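Our preliminary data section would be incomplete without showing what the modeling component actually yields. Below, a chain of 139 amino acids is followed by its predicted structure, encoded as C-alpha coordinates that our downstream tools consume directly.
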Amino acid sequence: MKKTFLLGYALGLVVGEGTFTNCRHPRLAVKLHEEDPEPLLLLKSLFGGRINGPYHYKGKDGVVRRSLTWNLDGRKLMRVLPLVAKYLPASRKRQQFLLWGHKHGLVSVPNQTELMFHEQQSKKRKEKQMLPEQLRLVQ
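Predicted structure:
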Protein backbone atom coordinates (compact mmCIF):
# COMPACT_ATOMS: atom_id res chain seq x y z
CA MET A 1 0.00 0.00 0.00
CA LYS A 2 1.09 3.56 -0.55
CA LYS A 3 2.72 5.30 2.40
CA THR A 4 0.34 8.29 2.08
CA PHE A 5 -2.67 6.00 2.38
CA LEU A 6 -1.18 4.26 5.43
CA LEU A 7 -0.45 7.61 7.07
CA GLY A 8 -4.05 8.74 6.43
CA TYR A 9 -5.37 5.47 7.82
CA ALA A 10 -3.14 5.78 10.90
CA LEU A 11 -4.28 9.34 11.59
CA GLY A 12 -7.88 8.20 11.11
CA LEU A 13 -7.28 5.67 13.89
CA VAL A 14 -5.93 8.46 16.08
CA VAL A 15 -8.99 10.64 15.39
CA GLY A 16 -11.42 7.80 16.02
CA GLU A 17 -9.80 5.77 18.78
CA GLY A 18 -6.77 7.70 19.99
CA THR A 19 -6.07 9.72 23.07
CA PHE A 20 -3.35 12.19 23.98
CA THR A 21 -2.57 11.45 27.59
CA ASN A 22 -0.01 12.26 30.23
CA CYS A 23 0.14 9.25 32.50
CA ARG A 24 3.60 9.99 34.01
CA HIS A 25 4.73 11.59 30.72
CA PRO A 26 3.20 12.67 27.37
CA ARG A 27 1.85 9.74 25.40
CA LEU A 28 -0.28 8.95 22.37
CA ALA A 29 -2.42 5.82 22.83
CA VAL A 30 -4.93 3.92 20.70
CA LYS A 31 -7.11 1.23 22.30
CA LEU A 32 -8.95 -1.46 20.30
CA HIS A 33 -10.65 -4.79 20.96
CA GLU A 34 -8.13 -7.59 21.49
CA GLU A 35 -9.60 -9.53 18.55
CA ASP A 36 -8.59 -6.70 16.19
CA PRO A 37 -4.83 -6.25 16.67
CA GLU A 38 -3.96 -5.57 13.01
CA PRO A 39 -4.53 -1.77 13.10
CA LEU A 40 -2.36 -1.55 16.22
CA LEU A 41 0.34 -3.63 14.54
CA LEU A 42 0.22 -1.20 11.62
CA LEU A 43 0.67 1.77 13.99
CA LYS A 44 3.62 0.00 15.58
CA SER A 45 5.22 -0.75 12.20
CA LEU A 46 4.77 2.87 11.01
CA PHE A 47 5.70 4.78 14.17
CA GLY A 48 7.20 2.33 16.65
CA GLY A 49 5.91 2.17 20.19
CA ARG A 50 4.54 -0.85 21.97
CA ILE A 51 1.33 -2.82 22.23
CA ASN A 52 0.19 -3.62 25.77
CA GLY A 53 -2.45 -6.06 26.92
CA PRO A 54 -4.69 -7.83 26.60
CA TYR A 55 -6.61 -6.09 29.34
CA HIS A 56 -9.85 -7.53 30.67
CA TYR A 57 -12.17 -5.39 32.77
CA LYS A 58 -15.82 -5.28 33.62
CA GLY A 59 -17.81 -2.36 32.26
CA LYS A 60 -20.57 -0.52 34.09
CA ASP A 61 -23.06 -2.79 32.37
CA GLY A 62 -21.30 -5.89 33.78
CA VAL A 63 -19.97 -7.01 30.38
CA VAL A 64 -16.27 -7.94 30.29
CA ARG A 65 -14.33 -5.72 27.88
CA ARG A 66 -11.15 -7.03 26.28
CA SER A 67 -8.67 -4.63 24.75
CA LEU A 68 -5.14 -4.01 23.50
CA THR A 69 -3.46 -0.60 23.64
CA TRP A 70 -0.77 0.83 21.39
CA ASN A 71 1.37 3.42 23.20
CA LEU A 72 3.85 5.89 21.77
CA ASP A 73 6.01 8.08 23.97
CA GLY A 74 9.52 9.43 24.39
CA ARG A 75 11.71 10.04 21.35
CA LYS A 76 9.44 8.06 19.05
CA LEU A 77 6.53 10.31 19.97
CA MET A 78 8.67 13.39 19.28
CA ARG A 79 9.44 12.05 15.78
CA VAL A 80 5.73 11.55 15.05
CA LEU A 81 4.49 14.92 16.37
CA PRO A 82 5.35 16.84 13.16
CA LEU A 83 3.18 14.43 11.15
CA VAL A 84 0.33 14.74 13.64
CA ALA A 85 0.61 18.52 13.67
CA LYS A 86 0.64 18.72 9.89
CA TYR A 87 -1.94 16.11 8.92
CA LEU A 88 -4.36 15.59 11.83
CA PRO A 89 -7.60 16.88 10.30
CA ALA A 90 -9.83 19.55 11.78
CA SER A 91 -11.72 17.72 14.50
CA ARG A 92 -12.30 17.60 18.22
CA LYS A 93 -9.26 15.31 18.39
CA ARG A 94 -7.13 18.04 16.78
CA GLN A 95 -8.28 20.45 19.48
CA GLN A 96 -7.36 17.87 22.14
CA PHE A 97 -3.94 17.51 20.49
CA LEU A 98 -3.38 21.28 20.57
CA LEU A 99 -4.37 21.55 24.23
CA TRP A 100 -2.24 18.55 25.19
CA GLY A 101 0.76 19.72 23.16
CA HIS A 102 0.56 23.24 24.58
CA LYS A 103 0.20 21.94 28.16
CA HIS A 104 3.35 19.83 27.82
CA GLY A 105 5.34 22.45 25.90
CA LEU A 106 5.47 20.28 22.78
CA VAL A 107 3.48 22.51 20.43
CA SER A 108 3.55 26.28 20.05
CA VAL A 109 0.20 27.74 19.03
CA PRO A 110 0.44 31.32 17.74
CA ASN A 111 -3.24 32.11 18.35
CA GLN A 112 -4.11 31.43 22.01
CA THR A 113 -7.85 31.43 21.25
CA GLU A 114 -7.26 28.12 19.47
CA LEU A 115 -6.63 26.61 22.90
CA MET A 116 -9.99 27.73 24.26
CA PHE A 117 -11.97 24.89 22.70
CA HIS A 118 -14.73 23.47 24.83
CA GLU A 119 -17.75 21.44 23.75
CA GLN A 120 -20.27 23.86 25.22
CA GLN A 121 -18.51 26.88 23.74
CA SER A 122 -18.39 25.27 20.31
CA LYS A 123 -22.18 24.96 20.33
CA LYS A 124 -22.51 28.70 20.98
CA ARG A 125 -20.04 29.88 18.36
CA LYS A 126 -18.19 28.33 15.47
CA GLU A 127 -14.46 27.94 16.14
CA LYS A 128 -11.95 28.99 13.51
CA GLN A 129 -9.89 25.92 12.55
CA MET A 130 -6.12 26.25 12.64
CA LEU A 131 -4.31 25.61 9.39
CA PRO A 132 -1.40 23.15 9.60
CA GLU A 133 1.13 25.78 8.47
CA GLN A 134 0.13 27.99 11.45
CA LEU A 135 1.31 25.33 13.88
CA ARG A 136 4.95 24.81 14.69
CA LEU A 137 6.65 22.35 16.97
CA VAL A 138 8.66 23.57 19.92
CA GLN A 139 12.30 22.64 19.48
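Residues 117-127 have pLDDT under 50 and may be disordered. Strands lie at 18-21, 27-33, 50-58, 64-73, 107-108, 136-137. Preliminary results of this kind motivate Aim 1 of the renewal.
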